[in-house]
Amino acid sequence: MTENHSTYILKVRNISVYTNLEVILKARTTNEEACKEVTRVMESDDLFQGYEWKIEGCTAGGIHDFNDRLRADILERLEQEEPEDSIFWNGSKIQFELNVAHVPVNTTLEVPLKSKSKDEAVREIEAMCSGGNLFEGYEWKIEGCPDGGINEFSDELKKEIVSRLGQESKIEDCIEIQSTT
To answer: I need a labelling partner for 152 at 20 to 30 A (CA). Which of 15, 49, 63, 103 fits?
Structure first.
């Protein structure tokens, strides 16, 4: 007989993290056609219109704000490289994808906690924040991204996580229970 266990997960919402983005292009035939499409997208007024941008590897997208700042960051990264360096053929899906590396994105982070109760989880989070050991022994990832998705675990990110958690009226609201069997 399998025993049910509960895992507590800390979710930190609306936080900026460096990650990689991807978008499926409409070009289907040649790399040259895909490069021309990327150039048109870069020159358009709204590079998000008509395209489903998402964090690389995330099934649900993961991007909270499609704003002018994100647009500028994407364009800055694309302008640093030749279009063909960011375009990849996905043979299994028969499509071209544009990948943009190391862009700050507003998203939700999550991390499984070690605690066995909600009260323990609150104390664990408080200890993580006050001790500065947010990343030691913990596997942080972007919500909905099985491969993690975070490019940079910096002191700046630690400060932003602690600040964001400090803005919550109740830390309990950031804890979710995930049942496993």
So the answer is: 49
- Whole-angstrom distance, CA of residue 22 vs CA of residue 74: 11
Tell me what pLDDT residue 91 has: 74
Whole-number mean pLDDT of the chain? 89
Measuring CA to CA, which residue among 37, 14, 157, 156 is closest to residue 87?
A: 37
Task: Report d(CA 14, CA 49) in Å as an integer.
Answer: 22
Helix, strand or coil, per DSSP, at residue 162 = helix
d(CA 3, CA 51): 44
Q: Is the pLDDT confidence value at 25 over 70?
A: yes
CB atoms within 10 A of CB 153: 15
In whole angstroms, what is the distance from residue 88 CA to residue 34 CA? 9
Q: Across-strand partners of 104?
A: 18
For 31, 43, 81, 115, the CA distances from 75, given in Å and listed in that order, are 20, 9, 10, 42
Q: Which residues contact 32 (CB under 8 A, 6 or more apart)?
A: none
Could you tell me if 173 and 48 are in contact, meaning their C-beta atoms sit under 8 angstroms apart? no
